[in-house]
Design a protein that fits this description.
mainly alpha; Serine Threonine Protein Phosphatase 5, Tetratricopeptide repeat; 9 helices; globular; transmembrane
Length: 143
């Protein structure tokens, strides 16, 4: 996505939010056939800026980060399994790298670590998972 397209998306997100005038913005909760909301799509494609615009600079719509699609994935998991490091970093930073365990595990029981191994995403990606998410580390040790 180039800069001109980003500006259009930014303006569209702002227009939707201004039109809604509510704490919960229904347009941001709408799902596609896969159950993905706009934050799912933005995160899985690596658009960290768009995630930030949707969630809000003051985290006004942070509840969107916990919504799951038909595969049991929230936007954080979607960013991780699609190897979108910037979106993953932004979304994990929303919770000060202390995401609740349920946000790190798919409905089928797979963790972000399972997803990384299955897709062979080795290297510096696994290190931030262990250092940033102590709950995941504890979960894996207790497993």
């Amino acid at each position: 996505m180039d800069l001109d397209e980003e500006v259009v998306v930014h303006d569209l997100v702002n227009a939707i939010i201004e039109h809604s005038q509510r704490a919960r913005v229904k347009a941001m909760e709408m799902v596609n056939d896969g159950g993905d909301t706009p934050p799912h799509v933005a995160a899985s494609r690596g658009f960290a800026k768009i995630c930030k615009w949707i969630i809000g600079t003051d985290k006004e719509r942070i509840y969107l980060v916990s919504q799951r699609n038909k595969h049991g994935e929230n936007p954080l998991i979607g960013a991780a399994i699609n190897w979108k490091k910037q979106a993953f970093a932004y979304l994990s930073n929303l919770s000060d790298h202390n995401a609740p365990l349920q946000d790190l595990v798919q409905d089928n029981g797979d963790t972000i670590l399972h997803c990384a191994i299955m897709r062979e995403y080795f290297g510096f990606f696994l290190i931030p998972i262990f250092s940033s998410f102590s709950s995941l580390y504890i979960f894996l040790v207790d497993y």
